[in-house]
Structures are given as C-alpha cells and as structure tokens.
Amino acid sequence: MSFTFAGCKKNENGANGGDVIKLGEYACLTGLTASFGTASHNGAILAIDAANAEGGVLGKKIKLITEDDQSKPGEAATIVRKLISRDQVSALIGEIASSRSLEAAPIAQQNKVPMVSPGSTNPNVTKIGDYIFRVCFIDEFQGAVMAKFCLNSLHKTKVAILKDVRQDYSVGFAQYFKDYFTKNGGTIITEQSYSSGDQDFKGQLTSIKAINPEAIFVPGYYNEVGLIARQARELGITVPLLGGDGWDSPTLTQIGGPAMDGNFFSNHFSTDDQAPVVQDFVKRYTDRFHREPDAMAALGYDAARVLIDAINRAGGVDHEKIRDALAATKNFEGVTGSITINKERNAEKPAKVLTIKDGKFHFYESVSP
Amino acid sequence: MNQFLQQLINGLSLGSIYALIALGYTMVYGVLRFINFAHGDVYMVGAFSGYYLGGWLMRAFGMHSSITLGMLVLVGSMVICAAAGLLIERLAYRPLRNSPRLTVLITAIGVSLFLEYSGQVFFGPDPKPFPAIIPNKEFLIAGLTINSNQLIVLVVTALLLVGLSFIVLKTKMGMAMRALSFNPTACSLMGINNNVIISFTFGLGSALAAAAGILASLNYPVINPLMGLLPGIKAFVAAVLGGIGNIPGAALGGLILGVAETLIVGYGAKIHVPPSYRDAVAFVLLIAILLFKPSGLLGKGQVEKV
Amino acid sequence: MLDRSKIALIGAVIASFLVSQFIGLDPYFSIVVINIGINIILAVSLNLVNGYTGQFSLGHAGFMAVGAYVSAAITTFGSTKWFQWFGAANTLNTGAFFVVALLAGGLAAALAGLLVGVPSLRLRGDYLAIATLGFGEIIRVILQNTETMGGSRGFSVSSIYTNIFWTYSLAAITVYVVLNLVNSAYGRGFLTVRDDEIAAEAIGVNTTKYKVIAFVLAAFFAGIAGGLYAHFIGYLTPEGFSFMKSIEIIVMVILGGMGNTAGVIVAAILLTILPEVLRPVQQYRMVIYSLLLIILMLTRPQGIFGGIKRPAFLSRKKAASA
C-alpha cells in the first residue's frame, strides 16, 4: 500500500499548471438512484463537450472527472476527498440526492473548492458554506408553489398526501407543501406513505379513496408515480394527482399511460418551451443519447454550464475567484430558466406548472410564491 | 365493509405475487438447503427477457396483446431463465457442492450483485415500461375493483402450487428430489445422479422466478435492474414464514404477508401504527410467528440427532 | 505482568497515535485507512457471532446504526452542556466527550443485541438469519420515522472527531478482546456451541448464555464502529444501514475464513481497498467486484485463511499489526 502513499504528493501543481481545466463530478451512475444520476451526468457531458467544441474555456479544454458513488451513503465523502486531493479539481459538480450532497459539501467547503449541485433540493445543502451552490430550486419553494397552485388555481382545499418515506426529497417536499397549504386555509386530510421500490399502492389508495380528497399530492419519483396513477384510476379515483420535478421523465407517461392525463406537476423546464436554448438542448440531447431529456438531464446540463460560465468570468481556476464568479451569476440563460444566484447561493427562478394531456407534458402556468 | 373487502382483495393480489416468487425460493431450499440469494435477480432477468421478447414479437411479427402473445412470452422467458439458472448452478454453485453452506451463500450474493450491476450496465439503469402483452380488463363487482391481471396471477399461482406439489409428491423426479433433500449421500448410493436432480431443481426454480417476473410486470408495468431486490427479500420472508422448504407454506406465507401489509396501511392508524411503519410490521409479524413456531407455519420441526 | 498480547495492544495504540500525530496523510488515503479500521471492528466483532459461535446474524448494520445515531445525538445535542461542565474544549475533554459518546452508542447497541440475542435462543440457522435481518430492518424503519434525528432526510453530525488514532486504538481493543475471549478457557464455550450444540449442552456448557454474550458483545463493538463512522462521515441516513451493509460485513467474515480473526482482518482490508482500486473502470466496478467475489469463493471456499492452522503466537502478532 505504500505506493499509494508515495503517489499522493506527486501532482502538487496539478490543474493550475496543466493545459486542461479539471472539473470533478460525483454522481450515482449505479445503484438505486442510478437513473437520475446518469441523466444528470449525461447533461453535464453534453455541456462540457459543447464548450470544448467551441475551443474550451480561457483557451483550455475542460476535463470532467466523474466518480460513481453507487447511490450509497458514505461513498460521496470518500470520492470528494479523492477528487480534491488526488485529481486537484478546480470545482465540483454533484449530487442529485441531497443526503449525498450533504455528506460531500462540508469537505468541499473545508477545502474551499466550489461545488455546484444540479438537483439537491434540501435547503440545508447550501447552508453548509459559501462555496456551495445549486442550480435547482429548493423543497421549500417548490412545496409552496404547488400548495399555492392547488389553492388558487385549482381551488382545492382538501388534499391527501402520498409520500415516499425512503427518499429525503419526497419527505421534505411533502413537509413544505403541508406547511404552506395548511397555513393558507387548506387541510391535509390524510398522510399515507410508501417506500421506493414498492409496486403496489392499492392499500394506500383504497384508504385515501374512502375519505374523498379533492386532490392527491404525490411528491415522489416517476417510476412509482406512474404506477400510483394507474392504480388510482383503476380503483376509481378521479381527482387530479399533483407532484413535482421528480415526475419529469418521458418514462412517466409510458408507465402511467392515460392514467397520467389531467394531473399537474411543477418543473424546472418544459420541452415545449420554444426558447432556442431549450430547443437546442433537447435536440442535441436526443441525438446523442437517443431519448428525450428529463429534468435531471436539464439540471446537470445547467450546473455544468453555470460553472463553465463562472470559470470564464473568473479568468482563471483560482477557487476563490470561481466562487465569487458563481455568486455573481445573474440572469444566466439556462435550460431550466433564467438563473440568478441569490444570497443563500440558491438559484432564483420561477417554477413552471405542467399538465399532462394525451401522454404529453404541456406548459400550464408559471408560479412564483 | 366494502373498503375492508377491497383491502382484502388488494392484499391477496399483492400476496399472490410474493407467493409466486416464494415458491421458487422454497423449491431450491427444500432440495439444496441453501438460500439462493440471486433468486430475486433471476426474477428481474425474467422480466427483462419478457420485455425484449415481447417487444421483438410485437415488432417483428406484428403481434398484438393477446393471450397467445402472453403465453409465448411467458414460456419463452421461463426457458431463458431456466437456462440461465442451469448456467449459474453449473458455474458458480456446483464447484462448491461440498463446501460449507455459508460459502455458497456468499457466492449467491456475488451472483446477485453481478446480475444487478451488469443489468444496470447492459439494460441501463432507468426504469422501462413493460409492454401490455395481455389485454387487461377491469371488473367492478358491487363497488369492488379487480382486474383480469390480478386474477391471472391468482390462478397461475394456484396452478403452479398444484403442479409443483404433483411433481414433488407424485413423480419419480420428485421422489428423487425428496430423497436428495433427506440425505444426499444415501441418495447417490441408491443410483440417483444428484447433479441431474440439482440441475433440474435449479432450472425449475429459475423458470418459476421468470413466471413471477412476467406476471408481476403485467400488474406493475415498470421494470428496472434492481426490481428484484425488495420482492426478493419479501418473498424470502414469506417462505420462512410458511416454513422454508414447504411448498404450500410458501404460498400461505406470501398471502399472509401481502394481506398483513395492506391491512397495516389501511387500518394501522386505528391501532396507532403509522402507515410508514409498514415495512417494519412485516418483520415484527415474522419474528412473532417464529417465536411461537420456530420452524414456520407449516414447517416441520427438525429433530436433533444426537 | 504484561503478557505478549497486552504489549501488542499497547504497541498498536501507540503506533496509531504516532501515525495520526506525525504523519500527514493525503486526505483520500486517510479516509480509506479509517474505513478499513471501521470495517475491521465490524468484521471482527461479527466474527464472534458468525464465526466463533456458529450463529448466523444478518443484522449487524442495525447495531451499527444504533451506535451511530446514539453517539451522534450525544455529541450534537450534549456538547454545550459538556463543555459548560468541564471547561472550554481542549484535546483532553473533547477526547473524553468522544469516548463517553462512543461508549453510550456501544451500550445502546449492546442493549439492542440483548433484544436480538434472547429470541435467538429459540431460532436456528436460516430462521435466525431472517429474524436478525428483520431486526436490522426494523431499526432502519424506526430511524426513518424518528423526526428528532432527521428521519429519512438524514442527520448532520456536528463534529468530526474520528481519526486514525481513535479508529485503530479501538480496532486493536476489539481484536484484543475477541481473541483473548475465545482463546481463554472460558471462551472455548463459544467454539463448543458452534461445533456441536448438543454435545456442548451435554457436557454442561450453558449454550444460551454463550449465544447471548456473543450477540451482546458483537453488538457493542458494532455500536462503537457506528459511532466512529458517524463522527467521520458527518452525515447519517437510515439508508446507509440497510441490510446491504450487513451483507458487506458478512462477506468479509466468510471470505476471511469463519472464526479466523487474522483472515477476517485481511479480508476487511482487501474488500475495502478493492472497490477503491477498481474506481477507474467506473460503472463496471461492481460487475468486476462481484465477479472477483465469486472467483475468490470458488478458489478459496474456506476463506482466504480458512483451514490453515496457525500456531497460537501468530494470532497475537496479527493483533499488533491491526
């Protein structure tokens, strides 16, 4: 083992001296949440390859060093230390899951390496320190958006919640939805739950049906939501289902079929948005990966682009300068909307509520709480 | 009352899927006395073979969802998985025939991880919609909902239960299987080729896993490389609950588990058990039953030989 | 009088102290080294149940979780009180605080071990395995529903105390306790339970007592390992203690050769380093890892060191190198 020990001191000047700019990415390419990690990773690759094709940044090519954390707790902390101390990356991209970002962020902060999370929506992530950023909105915001939409646009005040207790995203999103909803005159008549990987939700849905809610809030991920919608319709539940960005994937309507029609979810972007930056992204993503991009892919793409833009403005790979440039990001034209990084280092952008009709997502309205 | 009956139907339909997977588990255990950890992953392979086979039949021959297509896919996947099971047994388990059981268990864990992760690499990690190879029809009887796929699962489980019992109890092969599970050495002294019996058991067990995979995917039409993980554990629990190695026990254990889980979700709140404790309740039930009947509901207590 | 094993123990503690104080390790390297140490504690303690006593526990990650959460709760919620009582934080009282938290975590896990040990008296083999798996999963579900500890959203541990000194001193103590126990006249009882339970009872060995002791002691050390893990990774989620974690530890025990502490230590080292070495192949990493696992079991079915009879003094030496 001594060779590893000797090897670690070798590349002292690493990234700064070379002719490439190294970015580190930790993502879940295998394991339970691999489908989200892979999408976000693909998005990041697309952004970096595009930048390199245009000559790179500051005359240097960008090299993305990706490590797989297997969706396993404990791995992210190891990987980020490796990326920082071995690969001497200039900045970090990751993770989709908040729990793993929360593991890695203190290390990035301690080493003063800027980190941009594509999809961690837990408010605590960026509270770790001033080197931690994100390009998505937070649970609190999205929860309030959907609660407001439900109350003001749909005029539904009696709602049932069906959340995934194994996903921190789902639990947090449900909590903030409930907070806003009950504070503004709504009532949550029941809270049911399931665990990711479950396939049968009829027990929960039968209980929900018995108390006649006006809508059901399902803050889960698309693989389960598709099944939930089907089983709800089978049991004769006709009220709309509401959800968030975890729903966004072309697979959702393939699984749910007609059962998905008439439901609503909040999202970062919509593929029928005619803005050139969105259309260009959708086309290139589909060409390269032979599938339509989902929200995670769009966020991975934006995370990498915001970071590249910041490095460009920083004029070098000095960690502190990149940090300052990231913090100064303003009206950046992202696929997921115009991104402005606020004081809490979160992306400020309006959420879009989409509805589903004939298996397609359609833009319904923009909501800001 | 209506709600309770609906919950009962939900529970039985969920339980019959557990039962179906548990049957394969218990078959292999009954003969070899070892937990085939990779069973849940063979179930996944079965679902994926169905996905590709069904898609191919629909594209290449323009077949539409029908009972014929369903049967073709079911049989095809069972054959593919039986072959896979034989291959796994030959390569990974047979060389360890005389090793401690725990060694084989670790190898089985290795096989399980191998199937899961190579599945993620080759099939891709994202969930895939399973094609509707058999048309689904919903029935509404007195306010209760049940669909044809749920009925198919129940019927197939019942048929397999009878079929397996027949094989094990009435055929020569079955007699050899029982002999082997009783005493492998004496069995081979009686002129039985143990390897053939074990291969047969494995092939049969894997075919059962494939059948479960296809039928489950009809009911829950989304598949992914890790789909076998949770049902695998649940089915294992069901098999132990019923008395592992006992075929009717596996079916009974599966049904009990399914009904218990559904009832906790439906009525747990009334006895101050929040529905989020559902996964724990299954295990509490299991432990409670094992404490009173350590060899499972239908299992025979083993007499210690001195 | 100091015997050789005590000298080895003290040597290991001093060595780990010197390494942590005077050798500046690369952060990535040191995280791997600490991971190895924690895995050694987990595997060696599980070996007491699965290897020496011949019981089959699938719930080790559950005990680790209890230790991790209890000790993390103490250092996070109790730090203000502690430093009020014992003065401003310095190396000494911080260390003492950490030891108290670890011990509390270990004791809580031991209590959980007692709860599992009692039903284990009635269950054998696969039934015991599934019951312990159940206990592990029950603990995970309870944690998922414990809002004060963050539930599924996870819990941020306020202080990172774990370093090479703590990890390896505790690993050395674990190895020392387990080896001395099973090599003592009293500890031979564990082996008799494994080798032939009926014969053991016939010659007057209280098998029940040995099983419970094995469970409680193994759970205690798993709890300690959990505490170390919590104050090293800094963020706890119930998902980290699912039964896959138990499986990882069992693989170390069996690959090392059941009831062979030296082998188990080597297996813990190997199986912690292997995934790191395989990093460059990315997604194929676990595919190759699982293949290697199968091949290792096929070529060394008794475990890496299983079946090799060692002279007694060698086991002492291994304790030192840990």
Secondary-structure blueprint of this entry?
The complex is a heterotrimer of chains A (369), B (306) and C (322).
Chain A: H1 2-7, H2 14-17, E1 20-27, H3 34-53, E2 61-68, H4 75-85, E3 91-93, H5 98-110, E4 115-117, H6 124-127, E5 132-134, H7 139-153, E6 158-164, H8 168-183, E7 187-194, H9 202-210, E8 215-217, H10 222-234, E9 241-243, H11 250-256, E10 264-267, H12 276-289, H13 295-314, H14 319-327, E11 332-334, E12 337-341, E13 347-348, E14 351-357, E15 360-367
Parallel strand pairs in A: 1-2, 1-3, 3-4, 4-5, 6-7, 6-8, 8-9, 9-10
Antiparallel strand pairs in A: 10-14, 11-12, 12-13, 14-15
Helix pairs in contact in A: 3-13, 4-5, 7-8, 10-11, 13-14
Chain B: H1 2-32, H2 39-61, H3 67-93, H4 101-122, E1 128-129, E2 138-141, E3 144-147, H5 148-170, H6 172-182, H7 184-189, H8 194-219, E4 222-223, H9 229-242, H10 247-267, H11 278-292
Antiparallel strand pairs in B: 1-4, 2-3
Chain C: H1 4-22, H2 27-52, H3 60-77, H4 79-85, H5 91-120, H6 125-144, E1 155-156, H7 164-183, H8 188-195, H9 197-202, H10 207-233, E2 235-236, H11 243-256, H12 261-277, H13 285-299, H14 312-321
Antiparallel strand pairs in C: 1-2
Please describe the structure with a list of short key phrases separated by commas or semicolons.
heterotrimer; A: 369 residues; alpha/beta; B: 306 residues; mainly alpha; two-stranded antiparallel ribbon; 11 helices; 4 strands; 72% helix; globular
Describe this structure in words.
Chain A has helices at residues 2-7, 14-17, 34-53, 75-85, 98-110, 124-127, 139-153, 168-183, 202-210, 222-234, 250-256, 276-289, 295-314, 319-327, and strands at 20-27, 61-68, 91-93, 115-117, 132-134, 158-164, 187-194, 215-217, 241-243, 264-267, 332-334, 337-341, 347-348, 351-357, 360-367. Chain A is of the alpha/beta class and 369 residues long. The termini of chain A are far apart. In chain A, 63% of the residues are buried. Mean pLDDT of chain A is 88; it is low at 1-16. With 306 residues, chain B is mostly helical. Chain B contains eleven helices and four strands. In chain B, helix 2 (39-61) packs across helix 3 (67-93) and helix 10 packs across helix 11 (278-292). Chain B is globular and about 60 Å long. The N and C termini of chain B lie far apart (54 Å). The model of chain B has no long low-confidence stretch (mean pLDDT 87). Chain C is an all-alpha fold and 322 residues long. In chain C, 74% of the residues lie in helices and 1% in strands. Chain C has 14 helices and two strands; from the N terminus they run ααααααβααααβαααα. Chain C has a two-stranded antiparallel sheet. In chain C, helix 1 (4-22) runs antiparallel to helix 7 (164-183) and helix 5 runs antiparallel to helix 10 (207-233). Chain C starts with a helix and ends with a helix. The model of chain C is unreliable at 309-322 (pLDDT under 50). The A-C interface holds A 1, 4-5, 8-9, 29-30, 66-68, 70, 72-74, 77-78, 81-82, 84-86, 98-99, 102-103, 106-107, 122, 124, 165-168, 171-172 and C 25-29, 31-32, 35, 144-145, 151-154, 156, 160, 229, 233-237, 239-240, 273, 276, 279, 282-283, 285-286.
